[in-house]
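fold-stage: in
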Amino acid sequence: IGTPRYLSPELLAGTIRCDETSLLKCDVYTPGIVFWKVLSRFHFQNIDVNNCLYPLEEQLEELNLSLNNPTSFQLKSFELIVNILNECWQLNPDLRISFGVIFNRIRSFLSSLYNN
């Protein structure tokens, strides 16, 4: 199936329902972790990354972010990312965000940047 570190809790526990919706919700969990791993390599300024709860404590300790003065864009984009990641990591798969919602939120955010 994949690397256990990136599997959703229901896959690890063997409690996943074998229907399309459950499998899609299971698939949203992994990109949330991958996105966090990629983004944690960037240096966000004056932002407490601990406000974004990472489901695997071990990786949280690996974070090394510098803190300076944030721009409005950085704060808004970080808030959007944190919200999306937290919704990807919901322990209850039925509460997880869908890829369509992720796409629409990012598209709406980018659209608002160009319209202002």
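fold-stage: in (second)
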Amino acid sequence: MLKCLLFHLQAFLYSLKHSIPLVAYCEEQCLTLFEHPFVDLLHTLHHEAKVKVVPSVEDLLGYSSIQKLLFFDNEEEDPFVLRQHWSKLSEGKARVIKVHSNTIEIVPLNASKGGGIRILLDHLGITEDSDLDAVGDYTRWLSNERSN
């Protein structure tokens, strides 16, 4: 628990220091420390919950359950540098996943979108033999799950 808290603290302070947008996914909420056009796209383009701006790092750390962190590269940053930095810091604690050309997710080691989709499909009784063509980019996430 303390390791997670320290890791999250590092991420939030890095976000502020470098003015790189960071969104924390906490249960049903998306939280950030400052407004940014990239953050707004989560709601307007990707239909995520509207991101709430939290006034301080201390307030953000007060949220008990952070499932993942999402960093947006700004135009000045080399996306490889951000990913490399957080891959090194998170080694053995979390996985860093490049989601799009300008975003990385930091998720717990045991997190898997493919695994989550599989659980949902099993719950709904949908098997690989079903006439289901796709669930989002389901095939890609299953491929990622099999390769990990």
